[in-house]
Each structure stands twice: as structure tokens, then as C-alpha cells.
Design brief:
The protein has 211 residues and is α+β, with helices and mostly antiparallel strands. Helices cover 46% and strands 13% of the residues. The protein has two domains: 106 residues, 2-Layer Sandwich (Alpha-Beta Plaits); 84 residues, no CATH class. A four-stranded antiparallel beta sheet has the order 2-3-1-4.
Length: 211
């Protein structure tokens, strides 16, 4: 299988451009890590094939240098057909090595029959800003605590926000477009995480978070 054939090649990842609508940042070493958010819209009837592909590429990606987290936000039946994969690395250089690699390029080519659109992703310099208390100067929590807090905050939002956003879109007369729905749902989740949920949630669990 492709995963087995390429695991041994991860140390020699090349730097050729990967197919994307995003421009990768410079190879600076960010102390808070670097995160890529990948969005794939799946063709009708191809979800099982895509899930198998996702398991293969996930095994290879998790063996790459510098990987910290690999998370999948799956589509909600009847509302969306989009998968969101959040991958976090310790440095931007390690993230670029994976995103620009021939190994990943081969996987993306294999996945094209399952995708409605091209491979799309955006790069961010970490999520630690969610965990820095107001005023700064504090040490950020350990990674596993960041993961648990982020996951437990995102999960209910991903489950609940579509049930609120979709009726509002219909009420405003917006077209019934999966891309437009995904745009507003993800924008709402990120807005709520950044400005509403995380400032209050991290304050509530602060004693455990920073212990």
C-alpha cells in the first residue's frame, strides 16, 4: 500500500510545491508551533473510499518529523460533506516539509476522484494564543492539556453551530450551497472559539490548566 511504501521516505521529504490555493509562510521557527487546516469536500458516494484514504495518509503523516497533533472534524450527515483536518507541527519548517513533500503529493493525487474541489489549506502559527492569560507573561500549558481543552470546546460547537447557522441562512434567503454553508459554519466556530468560548473556558479551568 502507499502508506507502507512511503513511511521509510519521510526523512528525505523534498520541497516541491504542493497543489493548494494557499501560500506557505517562511521557514521561521515559531516557538508556539505551526498549524495547517485542510478542507476537503467529498463527492457523493465516496465517503467510505475517502475514509480509507484518510487512514492511510494519517499513518504516514503521524510518522513525519515534528508532528504534535492530528485531528479530524467529520461532516454532519444531511448538512455538510466537508472534512476538516487540523495538523499541528512544532515548527513551520517541519510543517512545510510535509505539505511540500512528494509523499503527500502522491496521496493527494490518489484522493482526487473522491474530492469535489482541489486540496485547500491554510497555515497558522499555532493556537497557543488561546491559552495565554490576559496581560501575557505566563507560561503556556503543556500540549496534552491544550489538546483536551481545545477538543472539548470545539466538539459541541461543531455539533451545534450548523443547526443554528443553516436556518438563519435560509431565513436570509441565501442560496443552498454547501460551500457557503461550510464557510459560515467554520467562520462561526472560529469566532466563538476565539472571542466567546476560550476566554471564559480557560479562565474556568485555569487552576488545572496551569498546574
Amino acid at each position: 500500500m502507499l502508506a507502507q511504501e512511503t513511511l521509510a521516505r519521510l526523512r528525505g521529504l523534498s520541497r516541491h510545491a504542493a497543489p493548494s490555493m494557499s501560500t506557505l509562510p517562511s521557514t521561521d521557527h515559531h516557538p508556539n508551533g505551526s498549524t495547517v487546516v485542510i478542507t476537503h469536500r467529498i463527492r457523493e458516494g465516496c465517503q467510505a473510499d475517502y475514509d480509507g484514504w484518510l487512514a492511510e495518509i494519517g499513518a504516514v503523516c503521524r510518522a513525519s518529523a515534528g508532528l504534535l497533533d492530528w485531528q479530524i472534524i467529520r461532516p454532519i450527515a444531511g448538512l455538510t460533506n466537508s472534512y476538516t483536518i487540523v495538523i499541528r507541527y512544532d515548527t513551520t519548517e517541519h510543517l512545510q516539509q510535509w505539505m511540500n513533500s512528494d509523499v503527500r503529493k502522491q496521496f493527494i493525487e490518489k484522493a482526487q476522484p473522491y474530492l469535489e474541489d482541489k486540496d485547500e489549506y491554510s497555515i497558522h502559527s499555532g493556537l497557543d494564543f488561546w491559552f495565554v492569560p490576559q496581560g501575557g507573561g505566563a507560561k503556556v500549558p503543556v500540549r496534552w492539556k491544550q489538546f483536551l481543552v481545545t477538543w472539548s470546546a470545539i466538539f459541541p460547537l461543531v455539533m451545534g453551530v450548523p443547526w443554528l447557522v443553516v436556518p438563519v441562512m435560509h431565513g436570509l434567503g441565501l442560496p443552498d450551497s454547501r460551500a457557503l454553508t461550510t464557510f459560515f459554519v467554520t467562520a462561526s466556530v472560529v469566532f466563538l472559539m476565539t472571542y466567546v468560548v476560550m476566554p471564559r473556558y480557560t479562565k474556568w479551568v485555569r487552576k488545572w490548566l496551569f498546574a
